[in-house]
Amino acid sequence: MKNDLPTLASTSQKPGGQGAESAETYRPTGALIAATLSPLLGFFTLMLSHHISRLSKSMDQLILAYGHWIPGSIGSGPDGSIGSYAGKEVLALAVWLTSWLIFHQCWRHKELSITAWIPWYLGGVCVVTLGFFHPLIDPLILFVAESLKLI
């Protein structure tokens, strides 16, 4: 029995209205890149807010204010208090979600190069990972903070 249903490749449409003749070559990869860039920015925000909160008590309190509503962020219960980590998490989640929504809307129908993106992504993962390694990053953070007269 012959299947008369059209295949996905023969019915796919490009956003501009072109038909199936280019369905084989059109791959909207922008959503994939948006979905990988956004958590990277969220992790970068977590790293940056962590180092900023360590520079001064006033910055630590400012970051804590973003997450004071999270249970356990303030208090002295049996598990103690997580303090400004709650604010760091809220900031990271806000950057992740906001950037993902924006990038996804902008790039969802774009065909972006994944092979060009992968080295940037892996480099970003390395930078963020090394950014949490205090013996390596603390001298750099202190140098930048002193140069900008933050401390």
Written description of the protein model:
There is one protein chain. The protein has one domain. The protein contains 6 helices and no strands. Keywords: Membrane, Transmembrane, Transmembrane helix.
In percent terms, what proportion of residues is strand?
under 5%
Q: Which word captures the global form?
A: globular
The rounded distance between the terminal residues' Cα atoms is: 78 Å
Q: Please bin the fraction of helical residues.
A: 55-70%
Write down the domain tally: 1
The residue-averaged pLDDT reads 83
SS field, number of helical segments: 6
Largest sheet: none
Low-confidence stretches: 5-13
Q: What Rg, in angstroms, do the CA atoms define?
A: 22 Å
> Element order, helices and strands?
HHHHHH
Structural class: mainly alpha
Number of strands: 0
Short description:
The chain has 151 residues and is mainly alpha-helical. It has helices spanning 8-11, 30-55, 57-66, 85-107, 114-131, 134-147. It contains six helices and no strands.
Features:
6 helices; 0% strand; 151 residues; mainly alpha
Note the topology.
Elements: H1 8-11, H2 30-55, H3 57-66, H4 85-107, H5 114-131, H6 134-147
Helix pairs in contact: 2-3, 2-4, 2-5, 3-4
Region (Disordered): 1-23
Transmembrane segments: 31-49, 118-137
Keywords: Membrane, Transmembrane, Transmembrane helix
